[in-house]
Amino acid sequence: MTKKAQPSLPNRMVPYSEAFTAFIPEQWAPYPPDTTEPLAANAHTPIRRQAIQEAFPHDRLVIPAGGYKVRSNDCDFRFRPHSAFAHLTGLGEDLEPDAVLVIEDGDAVLYFHARVPRTDPEFYASAQYGEMWVGPRPTLEEMSRHTNLTVRDSGAMKAALAADLVHPDGQVRVVPGVDPRIDALIVALRGPAPEADRELEVALSEMRMVKDPFEIEQMEAACAATLTGFEAVIADIPEALRRGRGERWVEGIFGLHARHLGNAVGYDTIAAAGEHACTLHWIRNDGQIRDGDLLLLDAGVEVDSLYTADITRTLPVSGRFSPAQRQVYEAVLEAQQAGMDAARPGADFLDVHRAAVRVIATRLFEWGVLPVSVDEALSDEGGQFRRWMVHGTSHHLGIDVHDCAQARYEVYRGGTLEPGMIITVEPGIYLKSTDLMVPEHLRGIGVRIEDDILITEDGCRNLSAAFPRDPDAVEAWMAEVQSR
Ligand code: GLY
Ligand code: MN
Ligand code: MN
Questions:
Q1: What integer pLDDT is reported at residue 12 of this predicted model?
Q2: How far does the chain reach from its first CA to its final CA, in angstroms?
Q3: Using omega within 30 degrees of 0 as the cis cutoff, is the peptide bond preceding 122 cis?
Q4: Does the reported pTM lie above 0.70?
Q5: Is residue 356 classed as helix, strand or coil in its secondary structure?
Q6: C-alpha of residue 80 to centroid of ligand 3, in Å
Q7: d(Cα 71, Cα 67) in Å, to the nearest integer?
Q8: Are 446 and 272 spatial neighbours (Cβ–Cβ below 8 Å)?
């Protein structure tokens, strides 16, 4: 027999009785002593906060972490803080939904939802904050020790944002579009100021272009964890073939290690076998892996501090490249090496791309694929080579896989490489099976090789150098990993 619901209650909500609310706070052991460790990033975050304050010396800067995003109905995606917030606080993993960092007059205050006593209904009734739902929350003292920041409960935030500015000629700026509640609050207090907010967003993105030593260490750790994931995939290729739907198996094996060694994958894994390798962002990964195919694996572990690797290897499933696969692979490798050779301080960001695509266009011309001269194909008026490599060769890499994405054109694509920048070098050639301009024996072959490159004082260092690149070395690597 169906009971009629009380009309005011959501369909799955069971009301809490008075007896329950009186009973639930009783007889809990005290919380264990605080064992919170300071974040390793704490040596660097004050310098970053100072840099952004210096860019806007009189202003109150509001940097929200963001809130939960609905996956469906009352289920949210796992929380990930906004990258500017993570960069300025050092908080990674799933910390800290609805928090806000406010910087003004050289001081930074972190507002967050601190632990409430178990007498508060939040303890059992809040699926987002309740201890019974998501575990115990940090206290103000714990968060302060963790981040070395001044911290206040988020209940105090509204009044702090509404308070008079320290500098009368200053203004409030917020990173827009991160937390709609904060956007609305600031607009109500100050009125809309999209230009001012945009300037803050751009400056925060640009200040991440040159990495500090801690960030470089985190990127090295991300690359090392990613190597573990790639080797686990290589070891399990026979299993992926045996089970069928091998691309999903590969995605899962990599994801296991990403979650185990780090926070997550830094972006959806591309596990593209055979023809799928010609689809640049193939993340559906529902295909078979067949003996004789290439497997293009583009994957990166994001460590707990949220820095991510972004590495691609194109692997012969059988352990040996066919002559046609090797021909394409060697051209991409040569292009990548040319790109890496161009990656040094003082070079244009675009020099890396120019060097790589000159090799790509030259090889395509020699194979009879490119129907115009190399120079015409490389000209702004031409660009025909892009039919076989439509993407760029490089992007900045860090907390975001496509890091610093809000930076201005003149400091990013039109900018100059500097020591401390980390970029990818990732040329590819993608010869679709449906492309009638491609000789038949090369159709259906897609190859990308992607490494993570730190610009140094005198050139560059490959942070993913532990991943073999040369085709003979790749074959030897696969044989060695599969014989372990
Ligand atoms: N994995 C995405 C990219 O390489 O940019
Ligand atoms: Mn990339
Ligand atoms: Mn990639």
A1: 74
A2: 61
A3: no
A4: yes
A5: helix
A6: 20
A7: 13
A8: yes
